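Structure representation.

___
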Amino acid sequence: MSIKLVLGDEVVTIVSAYAPQAGLDASTRQEFWEDLEEVVQRVPRSEKLIIGGDLNGHVGSSRDGFESIHGGFWYGERNEAGNAILDFALAYDLGIMNTWFEKRESHLVTYSSGDNASQIGFFLVRNALRQCYTNCKVIPGESTATQHRLVVLDFRGRSYIRKRRPLVEPRIKW
């Protein structure tokens, strides 16, 4: 699912994505990535693009070969699904925002079930506009679903509220 927002003279496309779980067959996972590619290809390069969602993978803390898209701050070890995320982000020059901001563990874990904790919720944005984003973190204690936690991406944009000129009574000179 995606929405377009017109903010002043900028257009922002926000995509919500939910990748198939690791236990599903490879063709289902491949179909997801192909569908997401189609969505990204339809967004003009002149627009801001934000992809947020549960991508069900671990990108790990190693940036080797992915320095342009991976900031190096991460929770957990890379897995096969994480490789798919990294390959997709590299192909479309999308920065994985969760990895660019150093956080304590409680602000990294997006999924928790029993003794298992992982970081599978992501925000991907166009690298050319990465400097517009000031923070990406998990809000501890805010569960959007039973085991998932809310991930927040802050961005600095222009003020989109038009400032009105104050109404001033004209002075009458006597």
